[in-house]
TrEMBL record:
It comes from the Bacteria. This is HTH marR-type domain-containing protein. PROSITE patterns: HTH_MARR_1, HTH_MARR_2. Keywords: DNA-binding, Transcription, Transcription regulation. SMART domains: HTH_MARR (SM00347). It comes from Terrabacter terrae. Residues 10-143 form the HTH marR-type domain. InterPro entries: HTH_MarR-typ (IPR000835), MarR/SlyA-like (IPR039422), Tscrpt_reg_MarR-type_CS (IPR023187), WH-like_DNA-bd_sf (IPR036388), WH_DNA-bd_sf (IPR036390). The keyword Transcription applies. SUPFAM superfamilies: Winged helix' DNA-binding domain. Residues 163-172 have a biased composition (Basic and acidic residues). Residues 149-172 are annotated as: Disordered.
Amino acid sequence: MRVGVSKDEANEVFLGLLRVQKLLVAAKHSAPRLEDGVDVTAYPVLFVVAGAGTVRISELAATLHNDVSTVSRQVSSLVTSGLLEKSADPSDGRASVISLTDTGREALGRIQDGRAAWFQGLLSHWDGPATAEFVTRLRELADALDANLRARGATTPPMPFDSTRDQKQKED
């Protein structure tokens, strides 16, 4: 029994992921608008804040692998929209933490429901076991990439949808 993948197979996986990545970027502009006034690029901010409860902008930016100024603009827009709120960090009053408002939780629920419905349509020809296997493999790939980055000294904070999140929290 062969273990591992060949160079050709690895390249096919890479090219397939590259294509999906490019298509997802293109889909951002044509995907169904799920929440008026919320730019689709800000959805990950909402997802991470929801998973964290409260978080500093710098931690949010690190988790999203984004520039602090970009995340700060997204947070400001979401605060103005009433979806997020800023408050003083209880451990350091000079800093602020971000959390979801009740309106933000409701909006996030609509966004998640809308995204799930959209992806249900995209995956309408898949069956349950194939989907479960795909999710398992996708998480394994993400875990391998995370481990590779960490081995090279990169910091990769856990995201709310990180399959190793619970394990990492137990280690801390």
